[in-house]
């Protein structure tokens, strides 16, 4: 498949930092595909249900199969009906704003704004109780496509709040006060719901199901904050998640998912139970995802936990390059006992988010020094 978009969310840091015009071009392709539809019905493998290939005004999972007609026929992925996924629309909005922030391309922002409005309107239906926070549907309806999520969740709920916050910023830039007010109201209600339903004093619970795994510690729970900080938001007046909660959650992830897993030498396991045992409720919760680890490391750097960030990334790097010998065919995932899958995966390109976090950290320090001298 070309441009698997839930994965591109992580990998896109390489494009926007090295070849920004390629990233913007890809975004235009995704926007165009979003507005189209393919009402051909097909059966999806995981659920067995019949549904259209592509619905209008939702981000496609991918841009097509190289063995078919990519760009013309999208959504080669047939495991789930991704029109019902909770993360794809949000990841588009977050990437659009980050790309605008890093390039300053106002024409790009104006072109993407109507598409962002359309996909966020599609996303609204997932907030069934109107508390400002979306709910997952009780199956694996996001990039962790074998890890069941039910109700409000740390991952998708966090992405949702971050995307809503970005919509507030874009509405202000585009001069649409009514839309800005609408999303500001949603954000305020959603923040309260997110903290009330998911924060447990140490981290954000995986989800709100009645399963024992609902209190698992997810290494990727701060993905929304990661993108906010990469986009110059997420602190001060634009704070979405309480800073002390973000830092505490990252410290908990480092303590449990990193240090309590394989002696702290293999990066961060996706899911860890609060008892210090990996979450084995899913094949994916028990894995380490290389691209997620580098994104987590970048988030730690953004929040001032630079040493922890590099310790986390080092375990992953040394596992891939030295223990597995897969440096030039980096896998999507590996387990503690030298089992790996999906070689030459693009998600690990998120390592460039670490570089961006360091650059932004240094720029901020230089600015503070300059102000002190003045």
Order of strands across the main sheet: 7-8-9
Based on Cα principal axes, name the global outline: globular
Number of domains: 1
Backbone CA Rg:
20 Å
SS-based structural class?
mainly alpha
| Average residue-wise pLDDT | 97
The description of the largest β-sheet is: 3 strands, antiparallel
What is the rounded distance between the termini?
54 Å
Number of helical regions:
11
CATH architecture: Alpha/alpha barrel
Q: SSE order, as H and E?
A: HHEEHHEEHHEHHEEHHEEH
| CATH topology title | Glycosyltransferase
Q: Provide the helix percentage.
A: 40-55%
Q: Uncertain spans, ≥5 residues at pLDDT below 50? A: none
Percentage of β-strand residues: 5-15%
Q: In the CATH hierarchy, what is the class?
A: Mainly Alpha
Number of strands: 9
EC number: 3.2.1.45, 3.2.1.46
Main location: endoplasmic reticulum
InterPro entries: 6-hairpin_glycosidase_sf, 6hp_glycosidase-like_sf, GH116_catalytic, Non-lysos_glucosylceramidase
Subcellular location: Endoplasmic reticulum membrane; Golgi apparatus membrane
Question: In a nutshell, what does this entry contain?
Answer:
The chain has 374 residues and is mostly helical. Helices cover 49% and strands 7% of the residues. It contains eleven helices and nine strands.
Explain this structure to me?
With 374 residues, this protein is mostly helical. It has one domain (5-373): Alpha/alpha barrel (Glycosyltransferase), CATH 1.50.10. 49% of the residues lie in helices and 7% in strands. The chain has 11 helices and 9 strands. A 3-stranded antiparallel sheet has the order 7-8-9. Strands 1-2 form a two-stranded antiparallel sheet. Strands 3-4 form a two-stranded antiparallel sheet. A hairpin with a 6-residue loop joins strand 1 (38-43) and strand 2. Helix 1 (5-18) runs antiparallel to helix 2 (20-35), helix 1 (5-18) packs parallel to helix 3 (88-103) and helix 3 runs antiparallel to helix 4. The protein is globular, with a radius of gyration of 20 Å. The protein starts with a helix and ends with a helix. The mean pLDDT is 97.
């Amino acid at each position: 498949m070309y441009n698997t978009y839930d994965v591109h969310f992580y990998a896109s840091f390489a494009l926007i930092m090295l070849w920004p015009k390629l990233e913007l071009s890809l975004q235009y392709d995704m926007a165009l595909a979003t507005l189209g539809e393919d009402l051909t019905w097909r059966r999806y493998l995981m659920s067995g249900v019949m549904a259209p290939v592509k619905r209008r005004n939702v981000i496609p999972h991918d841009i097509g199969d190289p063995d078919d007609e990519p760009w013309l026929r999208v959504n080669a992925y047939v495991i789930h009906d991704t029109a019902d996924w909770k993360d794809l629309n949000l990841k588009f909005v977050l990437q659009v704003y980050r790309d605008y922030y890093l390039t300053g391309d106002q024409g790009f922002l104006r072109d993407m704004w109507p598409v962002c409005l359309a996909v966020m309107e599609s996303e609204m239906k997932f907030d069934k109780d109107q508390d400002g926070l979306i709910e997952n549907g009780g199956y694996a309806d996001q990039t962790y496509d074998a890890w069941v999520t039910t109700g409000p969740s740390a991952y998708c709920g966090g992405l949702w709040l971050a995307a809503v916050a970005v919509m507030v910023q874009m509405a202000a830039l585009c001069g649409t006060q009514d839309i800005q007010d609408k999303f500001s109201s949603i954000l305020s209600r959603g923040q309260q719901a997110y903290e009330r339903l998911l924060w447990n004093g140490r981290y954000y619970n995986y989800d709100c199901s009645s399963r024992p795994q609902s209190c698992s510690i997810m290494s990727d729970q701060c993905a929304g904050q990661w993108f906010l900080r990469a986009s110059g938001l997420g602190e001060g007046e634009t704070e979405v998640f309480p800073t002390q909660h973000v830092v505490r959650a990252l410290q908990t992830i480092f303590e449990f998912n990193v240090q309590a897993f394989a002696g702290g030498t293999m990066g961060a396991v996706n899911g860890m139970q609060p008892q210090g045992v990996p979450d084995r409720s899913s094949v994916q919760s028990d894995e380490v995802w290389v691209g997620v680890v580098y994104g987590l490391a970048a988030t730690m750097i953004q929040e001032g936990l630079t040493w922890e960030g590099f310790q986390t990334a080092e375990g992953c790097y040394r596992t891939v390059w030295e223990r597995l010998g897969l440096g030039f065919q980096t896998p999507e995932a590996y387990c503690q006992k030298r089992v790996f899958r999906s070689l030459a995966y693009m998600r690990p390109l998120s390592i460039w988010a670490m570089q961006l976090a360091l650059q932004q950290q240094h720029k901020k320090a230089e600015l503070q020094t300059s102000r002190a001298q003045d």
